[in-house]
Amino acid sequence: MKKSEMTNKMATINIRQRVEILLDGLLYMRKYAGRTIVIKYGGNAMVNEELKTSVMRDLYLLQTIGMKIVLVHGGGPAIDQAMSRLNKPTKFIDGLRYTDGDDIQIINAVLSGQVNKSLVADLHKIGARAIGLSGADGHLIQTKQLSTELGYVGKISKIDAEAIKLLLNANYIPVIASIGIDDRGQLYNVNADTAASEIAAALNAEQFILMTDVRGILRDIKDPDSLYHELSVDQVQQMLGSGALKGGMIPKIRAIIAAINNGLKEAVILDGRVEHSILLELFSTEGYGSLITQ
Ligand SMILES: Nc1ncnc2c1ncn2[C@@H]1O[C@H](COP(=O)(O)OP(=O)(O)O)[C@@H](O)[C@H]1O
Ligand SMILES: CC(=O)N[C@@H](CCC(=O)OP(=O)(O)O)C(=O)O
Q1: Which residue among 58, 132, 248, 252 is the active-site one?
Q2: pTM of the entire predicted model
Q3: For this structure, is 287 an active site residue?
Q4: Residue 127 catalytic?
Q5: Is residue 34 marked as binding?
Q6: Is 193 a catalytic residue?
Q7: Active site residue 252
Q8: Is 101 a catalytic residue?
């Protein structure tokens, strides 16, 4: 066979494969069309710029094929950097950052300003329409003080999802920073997993995806192959009690349990370091991360 014939044959196979992939995907596109998907993005999964653009492209694709995408973000590493530039010590109590009167100003600037607008800019760069909000806008994330010990760390008392719905109906991707506000206009620092969980429940989302820097829930934290593909909410509750989950995984699992108790069918913990992990999760029967079900 001549070289040009070989190339033509390979091109045909590639096109065939592409068509088959599209047809396979159709089933899932129909499943999620018009449905709301809340994605929590933050931590170390958000640090790599190339990966960040790739995640934004996946979100744009999902929106283009008819899903309502809501992006809720944290930015712990960006806050750490700002604090260290300003020589401010950082203290965590049970995974939550002690936040004094100065800190909340810095954290608001980093999350609502720097991180939020950089995600909006990334979405804009690839052609998506996004609008950045903090939880203070449209009194979206209404909070009270969680405890005096933690300073200005907020406990969510109510989500007013009106602004999100307006943006989704106008075909924007809302990008939401995890800052809360109380009745007197005081801002609060809110854990982004918790904010995303409450927003997912308020929107009655079809899917709640938490992107992080591990494959999902691991039996042995040092062994990425020990991934739990599927767990029930009772099983993860037991794991919380037995100490099998540590550090940042604890607020994540608590957020998932709360979302499911508030009526969500399921949630997924997904590896934000792997390109297109969202598409691999949503467009396959096997999934890709750890699925937690009712
Ligand atoms: N059983 C477990 N399976 C997976 N990760 C775990 C487990 N227990 C603790 N972890 C830790 O939780 C971390 C994820 O939480 P965190 O770093 O706070 O994420 P993010 O910054 O994305 O919010 C993982 O990097 C891992 O070190
Ligand atoms: C109260 C509290 O701890 N708030 C978090 C908010 C940011 C966050 O949750 O960011 P990640 O999702 O990147 O971890 C913090 O100050 O780090």
Answers
A1: 252
A2: 0.93
A3: no
A4: no
A5: no
A6: yes
A7: yes
A8: no
Q: Is 76 annotated as a binding residue?
A: yes
Taking each helix axis from N to C terminus, what angle separates 116-125 and 49-64, rounded to the nearest 10 degrees?
Answer: 60
| CA-to-CA dists, residue 124 to 55, 127, 164, 262, angstroms | 13, 5, 18, 33
Alpha-carbon distance of 15 to 23, in angstroms, equals 12
Spatial neighbors of 233 by CB under 8 A, at least 6 apart, are 256, 257, 260, 261, 292, 293, 294
Model confidence band, residue 5 (pLDDT cutoffs 50, 70, 90): low
Beta bridge partners of 68: 36
Dist CA 141 CA 176 (whole Å): 10
* Residue 1 and residue 260 in contact, taking contact as beta carbons nearer than 8 Å: no
**CA gap 202, 161 in Å, rounded:** 7
Maximum Cα–Cα distance across the chain:
78
The neighbour count for residue 157, using CB atoms within 10 Å, is: 13
The residue from 42, 43, 132, 289 that is catalytic is: 43
Please report where in the chains the tokens 């924007």 appear, as a residue.
Answer: 172
191 alpha carbon, closest ligand: 2
Q: Which of 244, 268, 247 is nearest to 256 (CA)?
A: 268
Question: How far is the centre of ligand 1, averaged over its atoms, from the C-alpha of 40 (Å)?
Answer: 14
Q: What is the mean pLDDT of residues 45-59?
A: 92
Section 82-98 average pLDDT: 94
| Residue nearest ligand 1's atom 20 by CA | 43
Gap from CA of 30 to ligand 2 centroid (Å): 34
ipTM of the complex, rounded to two decimals = 0.96
Say yes or no: CB of residue 106 within 6 Å of ligand 2: no
Tokens 């009270």 identify what position? 144
For the CA of 96, the nearest atom of ligand 2: 3
